[in-house]
DNA sequence: TCCGTGATTTCC
DNA sequence: GAAATCACGGAC
C-alpha cells in the first residue's frame, strides 16, 4: 500500500487517466479514513479541448490551479449543488486534468453512507449501495470532498492516492459524458473505466 | 424519460 | 445582469 508520488501524476493526461484506474483514493477527515477504488476517469486536455474549463487558455480564479504543477486537486461546483473532483496533470503552465467519475467504496462504508443519505450502511437497499459513489457528484458527497478540498497537494496527508496493486481488470474507453456542447471534442474517447465494475456510472 | 433543483463562474 | 453549466433524484 504505497502512496503515489508526484511523478505519477505528471505527464500525458490520457496515460495518467488510465493509470489512475484501480488506485485507491483516500480522504482523511475528522480523524476518519474514507476511501474508494477509482473505476472511472475522464481526461481533459486543456488548451485544445473544447470540453475543458481551460480551453483556449482560459485562465480565471477557478481554473488557476490547473496551470500549476501536477498532483494537486481541482474541485469545482456544478449546477449549484454538487462538487466534482479532478487531479491536475502535466507540468506548470499546461492546464490539463483528469476528472474522477466513479469509485468503488472500500473503507468506512458507514461514514460514506451517512454522508450520502444520512442513513447507516446496514439500512441501505441494493440500489442505494450501487448509487453510493457511482458518479462524480456522488463520490464527492460520499467521501466528503468539497470546496475546502480544492487546491490540495495530493502528496500531502489529507487527500491522496495509494497503489493497492489492484491490476486484475481490463480497461475500456468511451466518449466522455455530458459535454455535447463541445462539438468535435464530444466524440473523443477520453473516458476510461474498469470493465464489468458495477460502480461505473454509465456503459 | 423528463424535469426541477439551485449557486458559482463566466460572458456580454 | 444574464446565461451557462464535465448531475442527481424523484416524478411520470
Automatic annotation (TrEMBL):
Q: Which residues cross the membrane?
A: 65-83
EC supergroup of this enzyme: hydrolase
One Pfam family this sequence matches: Pur_DNA_glyco
EC numbers listed for it are 3.2.2.-
Would you indicate the residue range of the signal peptide? none
Q: Read off the InterPro entries from this record.
A: Formyl_transferase-like_C_sf (IPR011034), MPG (IPR003180), MPG_sf (IPR036995)
Keywords from the UniProt entry? DNA damage, DNA repair, Glycosidase, Hydrolase, Membrane, Transmembrane, Transmembrane helix
Keyword Nucleotide-binding attributed: no
List the Gene Ontology MF annotations in alphabetical order: hydrolase activity, acting on glycosyl bonds
Which top-level group of life is the source organism from? Bacteria
Name the family: Belongs to the DNA glycosylase MPG family.
- Which PANTHER family does the protein's record reference? DNA-3-METHYLADENINE GLYCOSYLASE (PTHR10429)
Protein name, as recorded: Putative 3-methyladenine DNA glycosylase
Source species: Clostridium lapidicellarium
Q: What is the lineage of its organism?
A: Bacteria, Bacillati, Bacillota, Clostridia, Eubacteriales
Amino acid at each position: 500500500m504505497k502512496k503515489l508520488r508526484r511523478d505519477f501524476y505528471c505527464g500525458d493526461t490520457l496515460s495518467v487517466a488510465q493509470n489512475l484506474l484501480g488506485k485507491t483514493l483516500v480522504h482523511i477527515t475528522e480523524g476518519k479514513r474514507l476511501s474508494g477504488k477509482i473505476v472511472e476517469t475522464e481526461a481533459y486536455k486543456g488548451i485544445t479541448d473544447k470540453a475543458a474549463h481551460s480551453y483556449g487558455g482560459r485562465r480565471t480564479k477557478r481554473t488557476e490551479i490547473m496551470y500549476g504543477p501536477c498532483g494537486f486537486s481541482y474541485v469545482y461546483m456544478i449546477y449549484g449543488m454538487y462538487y466534482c473532483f479532478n487531479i491536475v496533470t502535466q507540468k506548470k503552465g499546461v492546464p490539463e486534468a483528469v476528472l474522477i467519475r466513479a469509485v468503488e467504496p472500500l473503507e468506512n462504508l458507514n461514514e460514506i453512507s451517512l454522508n450520502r443519505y444520512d442513513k447507516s450502511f446496514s439500512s441501505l437497499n441494493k440500489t442505494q449501495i450501487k448509487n453510493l459513489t457511482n458518479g462524480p457528484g456522488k463520490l464527492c458527497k460520499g467521501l466528503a470532498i468539497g470546496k475546502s478540498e480544492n487546491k490540495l497537494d495530493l502528496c500531502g496527508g489529507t487527500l491522496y492516492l495509494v497503489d493497492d496493486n489492484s491490476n486484475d481488470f481490463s480497461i475500456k474507453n468511451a466518449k466522455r459524458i455530458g459535454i455535447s456542447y463541445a462539438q468535435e471534442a464530444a466524440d473523443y474517447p477520453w473516458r476510461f473505466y474498469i470493465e464489468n465494475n458495477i460502480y461505473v456510472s454509465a456503459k
